[in-house]
Amino acid sequence: MMLSDLRAAFAGRLLTEAADTAPFLTDWRRKWTGRALAVAQPDTAADVAAVVRWCHAQRVAVVPQGGNTGLSGGATPDGSGHAIVLSTARLNRVRSLDPMGNTLTSEAGVTLQQVQHAAQEADRLFPLSLAAQGTCTIGGNLATNAGGVQVLRYGNARALCLGLEVVTADGQLWDGLRALRKDNTGYDLRDLFIGSEGTLGVITAAVLQLFPRPAAQVAAFVAVPSPADALGLLALAQARLGAGLTAFELVSDTCLGLVERHVSAARRPLADASPWYVLIELSDTRSETEATAQLESLLEAALEAGHATDAAVSTSVAQFRCLWALREDISESQGAEGPAIKHDIALPIARIPDFIATTDASLARHFPDLRLVVFGHLGDGNLHYNLSPAPGATGAADRAAIAALEAPVNRLVHDAVHAHGGSISAEHGLGLLRRDESARCKSAVELQLMHAIKRALDPLNLMNPGKLLAPEPTP
Ligand SMILES: Cc1cc2nc3c(=O)[nH]c(=O)nc-3n(C[C@H](O)[C@H](O)[C@H](O)COP(=O)(O)OP(=O)(O)OC[C@H]3O[C@@H](n4cnc5c(N)ncnc54)[C@H](O)[C@@H]3O)c2cc1C
User: Fold this and answer.
1) Is the pTM of this model over 0.85?
2) How far is CA 120 from CA 116, 157, 203, 282, 341, in A?
C-alpha cells in the first residue's frame, strides 16, 4: 500500500508526520486516542471522492473528521493504525446564499460560526447554536444531527438541512444539493446520511435553511418549585408565546451554585434560592417592548398559577447575555469540580418529573456519595443528567473511584430512561461512547434494520467502522 499513490490521487494535503497528525488522533475530551496511516485534507468534493476511492481500492478504513468537537469518540480512529482520517478542514467555502429562497449552500468544513456570520451579513438567521460553534463544522453538525439551544423553535440540524452532497463509501459523488422544502420522490437519502456519524459516507456540502432575523430577544430567569411546575410553565409559555418561544432551559439550584462558585462574574439573578429555575428566551419579529410585555404577562400568569415563585427579565443585551451565561457556564463549572459522569438523554416531556423523582431517589440509595447536576433543554425533552463526586473529591483516588462507578451508574440511568420511553443519546450521537449501551436498549428488529442499511451503503465496512454500530459477527 503506497501512501505516495494516495498523495498523487488528490490535490489536497496529506499529513503523515506524528507532530502533524497528533491533533487529529485524540478526541476533544481526551477520552480516546487512536492511530492512523495518515490524515488527508482534500480541497474539493471531487478530491474527497478520490481519497475515498483509493481507500476503497486498498480496503483502508475512512474516519471522517470535522472540527473534532464531538463528545462520543466518533471522529477518532481506532488503535490499529490502518485508517485514514479524512479531515474536512479545507472544504471551507460558503458556495452560495439565496436570500429569496432563504437558503445557504455550505461546504462541510465551514464552521458553524462562519455559517451564522454569512447568514447575518445577508440579514438572515441560521439558528443552530452550540457552545462549540467556533470550531465544529457543518459536516459534523449534520453527521451528528446536532441540537443546541434553539431546537424548540427551529429544530435540530436535520430540520435545518434541505439537501446534501455526499461521497459514498465506494467513492462516488452524489449531488443531492436540492433547495426544496417539498420532495417526495422515494427513500430520503439525505435523512439517512444525517445523524449517521460518518458510517455511511462523507458529507461534502449541504443546503441549509435560513430564517428572518428576530428584531428582539428577551430572556427571563424564573424560579420554579419543581420540574412539574416547570412543565406547567412550559405549557403556559407555548400557549401564550407561540412560535416566539425560542428556548426553555431547566437549571437545578446545584448547577447555579457551581456556576456561582467557579465563574467570578456570575451573579444570582433572584434574591431567594429555589430548587429549580427555568431560563426562557422569547424572540420577536416586531420590537423589544412587545417581547418584554408578552414575557411579563406570561410570568404574571405563571406566578398566579403557582408554577413560578419569582422571575427576572432582561432589560438589555448585556443582561440577556448574563442570564444565558448562567446556563452556558454549567458544563465548565461542573468540570472544575472534578471528574463527572454525564448523560445526554431524551424523554417524553410529560414523563420528566417522574423520571427525575424516581431516578434521583434510586441513585441516592445506591450511590449516596454522588451529587446530581441536572440541567438541559427541557422544552425539547433533553436533559443533561449528570453526577459529580462530593465537593473536594478531585484527587487521583477520587478519579479512580468515580471511574469505577461509571458503568453501574450508566446502567441504572439508562435503564430508567428506557423504562420511561426515552433515548440514551439526545444530541451527542453514539460514536464509541454509547454504541453498546444503545444496542442494549434497541429492539432486535431495529438493530437488524440499521445493520441492513450499513451493509447496503458500505458493504466493505470501511466508513468509520466500529462507530455507532458494533461490527457484525462474520458468518
Ligand atoms: C463545548 C462543547 C459544547 C457542545 N455543545 C453541544 C450542544 O449543545 N449540542 C450538540 O448537539 N452537540 C454539542 N457538542 C458536541 C459537538 O460540538 C457536536 O457533536 C458537533 O456537531 C460536532 O461537529 P464537528 O465538526 O466537531 O464533528 P467531529 O467531532 O469532527 O465529528 C463528529 C462525528 O461526525 C462525523 N463527521 C464529521 N464530519 C463529517 C462529514 N463531513 N461527513 C460525514 N461524517 C462526518 C465524524 O466521523 C464523527 O463521527 C458540544 C461539544 C463541545 C466541545
Assistant:
1) yes
2) 6, 18, 24, 19, 37
Percent of the chain at pLDDT above 70?
99
Contacts with 319 (C-beta within 8 Å, 6 or more apart), sequence order: 219
Phi and psi at residue 18, in whole multiples of 5°?
-55, -40
Nearest-atom index, ligand 1, CA of 135: 26
Cα–ligand 1 centroid distance for 62 (angstroms): 17
Work out the number of other CB atoms within 10 angstroms of the CB of residue 335.
14
pLDDT tens profile 325-353: 999 999 999 988 888 999 999 999 999 99
Q: Choose among 84, 29, 75, 125: nearest CA to 467.
A: 75
Report, in this order, helix, strand and coil percent for the chain, each rounded to 5: 40, 25, 40
Rounded average pLDDT over 392-414? 90
**Which residues does ligand 1 sit against, CB inside 6 Å?**
28, 63-71, 74-75, 88, 108, 130-132, 136-137, 139-141, 143-144, 146-148, 197-198, 202-203, 427-428, 431, 464, 467
Tell me the H-state helices in 112-250: 112-121, 138-143, 151-154, 189-193, 227-241
